[in-house]
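Could you help me review a protein record that somebody else here produced? This is what I was given.
***
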Amino acid sequence: MEYIYDDIKNPEKIALMRRDLTKLARGIRVSTIPEDANLSAPQSARDDQVLLGDKMVRRRRIVLLTPMCSAATCLMCPLPNEALDSKRRPITPEEISAQFDSVMEDGQDADFELLTLYTNGNFFADAEVPPVSRKHMYKLFKESKAEFLLVESLPQFLSKEKMEEAKNIIGDKKLIVAIGLQSASDLTRAISVNTTTTRESFERAYALLKEFDFMIQAFLMIKPPFLTDDEAIEDTVKSIQYLHELGIQNPILCATRVAPNTVLELLSKEGKFRTPWLWTVIEILKRSAQVSPNAFPRVVISELRKEGNADSEVPKNCDVCSTETVDAIEKYNEDRNIGNLSKLTHDCKDTYLKEKEEENRTIGKIPLEERVSEFLTKHKLPERTI
């Protein structure tokens, strides 16, 4: 694709860096699930309204308590910490199914159009959601009034057999699979995010979903670890272009927050990372509207609200204008009126521009591989000669 950039020029070196990053990421994971947690009840469940494409729909949102992500390599992701450590406390397929049942007792009568099932991991990883539980949830979804079922997974866990199984049970209803591409840059994905998602695995999963008339929801990060705000703008705009060229519209943009017990938290404490400014988020939306006018990206607002992330550092401007700016971005999600975002201004924007200039003069002058190598060296991981 035209918009793939930052090719990996030394794959052996990058592979060793990824191994060290993964070891570090997994070594600081801490499950926050209490020892006495009820394994037959979900972590949370609620009914609300959300945008699906360009339409507001009624949704039932369920977060199941399941084993943590089978990969758990990403440097910024808090989800493994919010999932069950099955080595300390195993969970049975029956308990996972019971969590779903406890929320879906009124499934045939409740009036919602979209059912979302989050697991803080991968719906299609058998080690996290057993096949028998998946089949059980498909059947209850089929019997409900909902037309859409949305789940999350890394692309490598999707297979033709699993898609055939879903199709055979849910029939003409629609399955939506949310997949984190995070960035179109191979290098950024490899050592800035440290995800197991590759461009090849993402495109294969997308083709597989299309084959079964299922849908994809693609996630992109705004400012992965080690990047500057200007690099984040370029990275996200190019990534939106890439998805649009593939035929994927409405990408979901997640502005990175600094969560506890993550590699990103270490980087932030060392003064090597600041959460993206909200001005950066707005600049991405403005530039994307010019470059890819029919892509229609949407920003995850919950990642920007401090009240829902008390333990994290969230993306922000100054204390005076942050709430107003988040409200404006939320409104843009609904009306797609870029003109209203363009009118936003505040005194702190001058500070933002000056900080970006300083960031570009310092961090921005160092190649990404060197930034990551320096960080790994500081954390006492041995250097290797390639």
About this structure: The first strand starts at residue 44 and ends at 52. Residues 229-246 form the longest helix (18 residues).
